[in-house]
Amino acid sequence: MNLKYRNELKYFINQHQYQIIRQRLKNLVKQDKHVGPNGEYAIRSLYFDDINNKALHEKLGGISDRAKYRIRIYNNDDTVIHFEKKIKFRDYIAKLKEPLTREIADELISGNYEVLRQSDKPLLIELHEEMKNNLLRPKVIVDYVREPFICVNGNVRITFDKELRTGLHSVDIFDPDLHCVRAIDDNLIILEVKYDEYIPEYIRIALQLEGLNRQSASKYVMCRKFLKTNSWEDY
What we know:
The chain is α+β, with helices and mostly antiparallel strands. The chain is built from six helices and ten strands, in the order E-H-E-E-H-E-E-E-H-H-E-E-E-E-H-H.
């Protein structure tokens, strides 16, 4: 497949840093058109992993070329449902996605991959094979609130991801009564910066990236740590 790879930078910032950076950005760039009245939208993802927890261990092991599978919805609504594959190649990322119906999503969550048997979509064919041969299954729900900004120059996307929560052992992404627990310190926000070839200098100055500590900040790993069953597991 022809993939469009982008750069991705992640940082943990505190509330004070967030307020300063956010105020600067509001005077320089626009917000994503999909935000609600408060300038945010909610994201809920159901991450899949295989019988060997390959995605988890490759991330923890620092493997540079890896992939993760997930189902994603927005604002706790099943109107738009996507199955996504996020690919990391060295320091670059790419994403493939296909829309799902609620019926197919429910079947996949229950582990029934046969609903994809007749699919003609390469990504869904791949999902079928992964679920059949490697026992890829739903593992954990990752839930958070995103505040996004867009800069046309350089195709830069800047997001503040807040209130990261995990659904613990539940995998029903559509459960309106799902009880999620906090998976990150109350004071911390994940700043993500994605771009094609470059970050305009005025954006770089506003973000002051040189003064921040770059992190791996995997939401999947942070939420999986709540599912440890043995004290020696280092997630």
